Amino acid sequence: MDAVETVTHEELKKKMDRGDEFVLVETASEPAYRRAHLPGAINLEDIGEVPKLLPDKSAEIITYCSNFN
Q1: Domain ranges of the chain
Q2: What is the pTM of this model?
């Protein structure tokens, strides 16, 4: 298993600005995702969807939750 690291807002912004390759995953509910999410983020409310939505097991994955309720 690879390491899990925390990415700061600033680091994420730099990655996005550089066009780095990674998968951005929003883990909030579907209604919260529809209200607002980061550009390019996919919604992953159901952990059972992981194999279908994230088939590349070598991809860098950055997850976040906007926590809009």
Answers
A1: 21-64
A2: 0.77
